[in-house]
Write a structure and sequence with these properties.
homodimer, alpha+beta, globular, DNA-binding
DNA sequence: CGATTCGTTGATCGGGGTCAAAAACGGTGG
DNA sequence: CCACCGTTTTTGACCCCGATCAACGAATCG
């Protein structure tokens, strides 16, 4: 089934019975958990080509809401699982997809736990670029998510994210166009900042 | 195959070709990633009954090392996948297991990103107790992992973890016996501390 | 065009990191 | 059982990164 969402429209809530699996066609979806004190931890961004709500849990484990206008393809969970059980190749695809989600989540844990603000944002930009842009050179992308979304994903405040963005711009690592446009000018420098992770003046070029 | 590890013995390293999947029989295994400045982020603890290295990635995405003396059962990855391709039921089990790992990793991100030090440690103690102890009342457990392991899992310094432990002891929330023994004296208080800066009151399952 | 949301910049402050050292633990061997 | 020693944990003092509070600027939209 097709499904179209407006900006900030909710797809499902944490604790809801899992009825559907979704595939993002265009736009972007933000997965998050709400905290008792009103705070929010973003646990993932879903971009075109990504599946939402994989895993065989009977309940959704987070909230899902469209960041901007978004088109989805939805599948009934039971039918999805039935198809997977009949097609080993398809099942393997799903297995791989969840594995990628897990790897990305662990990478997020590294950013939140062990990198400083600069390192977190640098790693984030590279990660998103890897998903939104084809090549490895300079490329301009339109970040679907706001500064606040990025901050809630990285465990930072939106002010800090903004400061790091302008800092990178001053250093010539990126260039900003309008509200959401970002061009990576120097991936190697970003890579170095991400790898340094927090030690000012660390080598960061020993490997690779 | 059977495999026995001594304390701190490495099972595999990040980037190694994935040759085996493991099942923990006794002991405990610590999964972590390293930054190039020597900082370490623990991404999960594997206890008896847990699988290690699920997901169809051709390379291991983290380091794995025994925390103490540990017994494992190992399977060749290719055989594992072959068996999965032939047995939809088995494949589903793996799919579910990876999904659980993903959920736990996301919950770890929530804890690391949105709780203060007290809340993180409180949630950690409760989640460990949920896995190591049967009941819900007071119970004494022996933490397999060191303060440093806990710190690297929660994105804190080992000194801070130690200070929080001492603080909880002073408040009568826990009592400490020897180096690794912990008795939960007041789960409700710990839960309150965890919820104060924590998530939606959902049962915390931080351990991988 | 206001109006409104989002992003940037500035000033201040505190939680927790860091460095340092003492203390407690747990083996080991006498 | 006790003395010794390496390791882990605890405690203390200091300080910095990033959160917070607060304006201000700048896109988007009706």
């Amino acid at each position: 089934m097709r499904r179209t969402l407006r900006a900030r429209q909710q797809l499902f809530m944490e604790g809801d019975e899992q009825t559907h699996v979704y595939l993002v066609k265009t736009g972007a979806v933000c997965l998050y958990r709400m905290l008792r004190n009103g705070r929010r931890q973003v646990v993932g961004f879903k971009l075109p080509g990504d599946f939402i709500a994989l895993g065989a849990d009977p309940h959704y484990r987070c909230y899902a809401e469209a960041i901007g206008p978004t088109e989805l393809r939805s599948f009934q969970t039971w039918a999805f699982h039935a198809a997977a059980a009949l097609n080993a190749r398809f099942m393997l695809r799903l297995y791989e997809a969840v594995g990628r989600d897990l790897t990305r989540s662990q990478e997020q844990a590294v950013s939140v736990g062990k990198r400083d603000a600069d390192g977190s944002v640098a790693a984030f930009l590279l990660s998103v670029a890897g998903r939104l842009l084809p090549g490895e050179g300079r490329g301009t992308m339109s970040l679907p998510m706001s500064r606040a979304d990025i901050a809630d994903y990285l465990g930072l405040s939106l002010e800090t994210v903004s400061r790091v963005f302008t800092g990178f711009k001053r250093l010539g690592f990126i260039s900003l166009r309008g509200r959401r446009g970002v061009q990576l000018m120097d991936r190697a420098a970003l890579r170095a900042v991400a790898d340094a992770g927090g030690d000012n003046g660390a080598p960061a070029r020993l490997l690779n």
